[in-house]
Amino acid sequence: xxxxxxxxxxxxxxxxxxxxxxxxxxxxxxxxxxxxxxxxxxxxxxxxxxxxxxxxxxxxxxxxxxxxxxxxxxxxxxxxxxxxxxxxxxxxxxxxxxxxxxxxxxxxxxxxxxxxxxxxxxxxxxxxxxxxxxxxxxxxxxxxxxxxxxxxxxxxxxxxxxxxxxxxxxxxxxxxxxxxxxxxxxxxxxxxxxxxxxxxxxxxxxxxxxxxxxxxxxxxxxxxxxxxxxxxxxxxxxxxxxxxxxxxxxxxxxxxxxxxxxxxxxxxxxxxxxxxxxxxxxxxxxxxxxxxxxxxxxxxxxxxxxxxxxxxxxxxxxxxxxxxx
Length: 325
Ligand SMILES: NC(=O)c1ccc[n+]([C@@H]2O[C@H](COP(=O)([O-])OP(=O)(O)OC[C@H]3O[C@@H](n4cnc5c(N)ncnc54)[C@H](OP(=O)(O)O)[C@@H]3O)[C@@H](O)[C@H]2O)c1
Prior knowledge:
Blueprint: E1 2-7, E2 16-21, E3 30-40, H1 42-49, E4 60-61, E5 65-73, E6 85-89, E7 98-102, E8 106-108, H2 115-119, H3 122-135, E9 143-146, H4 152-163, E10 167-172, H5 175-183, E11 188-191, H6 197-204, E12 210-215, E13 229-237, H7 251-255, E14 260-262, H8 266-269, H9 273-288, E15 296-301, H10 305-313, E16 320-324
Helix pairs in contact: 3-4, 3-9
The chain binds NADP nicotinamide-adenine-dinucleotide phosphate.
NADP nicotinamide-adenine-dinucleotide phosphate (NAP) binds at residues 41-43, 123-124, 127, 148, 150-154, 172-173, 177, 216-217, 220, 238-242, 264-266, 312-313, 315, 317.
C-alpha cells in the first residue's frame, strides 16, 4: 500500500482525501514509478471541482504532473529501465507516493534537472513552449501580453518571451507580484485589480497594441483582452482561473480587427510522442542554459494537498507549487 490523495466526490479542497491505495505491477507498456516530487496545477482544481470530468469516474487520484524514478518496467517496454529518472504529464493519478505511468508519456530527465524542478515545470513549461513556439511564434520586438504573469505558467512565460526578445507586458494581482514578474523578465506590469489594463496596454505600446495575448484568467479579462490586440493579432485563451468565458458571437473578432482566436491545450500539442519529446527537449534546453529558471516557491507534504489547493485558488501563490511524498 502507498499513500495517495483521492477525490471520492467533487467539491472544495476538503474533498482531497489522504489515504492508502494499492498499486499493481506494471502491465504492458507501463512503468511503475516511485515519485519524488509532484506538481500542483490549476487543472487539478478543475478536476477536483468537476469542471473537467474525470474520464475514469470516481474515485480518482488527483494530480497531472510528477517526477520520480522507475522501479519496474512492464512487458514490452524497451526505452526505460529500473533506476531511470523520469518526469511526465499524465491525466490524473499523480498525487501518490507510487504510480503506474504509460511509458510513452514519460520523458527521461537530464542530470542537471532536479526532481523538484521537473515537478514544477513539465506541465507549465511545456505549455509555455507550445504557446510561444507553436500556437503563435513569438519573435524579437513583438508586444506580448501575459495575464497572471506572476503565476506558475506566468513566470516561466515571462522569462522565455523575454529570452526570445519580445516586449513582455504582464498583469498581476498585487505589487509584490509585480516586483516578482519584473525580476523574471516582464518589462511592464499592470495591477489589473486596480488599473484599466486595456488603457495601460495602449499607453505602454504607444497605441500599437499586442501581437498576441496569452489569457489564462478567462471570465474576468474577457472581452478586454481582445482590445489589447492589434489587427490580425492572436488571442490565445488557455485557461479560466476566474471562471470560463461565456459563449460569444464570433463576429466580435471581426469588429476587434479580424483577430485570430484559439483555445489550445498541451494534450493536443504533445499528443504524438515525437512532439512530446521535442517540446520537452526545448524546455530542458532553456532551463539547462539558465535562460529560464523554475521558481518553485511553495512546497507542501503530500498530505497537505488541500492546503496547496486553497492557496492556489485564493491567489496566494507565485511561481510553481509542488507536493513532496
Ligand atoms: N491549456 C493548457 O495547455 C494549460 C496548461 C497549463 C496551465 N493552463 C492554465 O494556465 C493557468 C495558470 O495555471 P497555473 O497552474 O500556473 O496557476 P497560477 O497562474 O499560478 O494561478 C492562477 C493565477 O490566476 C490569477 N487569477 C485571476 N483571477 C483569479 C481568480 N478569480 N481566482 C484564482 N486565481 C485568479 C491569480 O494571479 P493574480 O493574483 O496575479 O491575478 C492566480 O495566482 C490556469 O488557468 C491553467 O488552467 C493551461
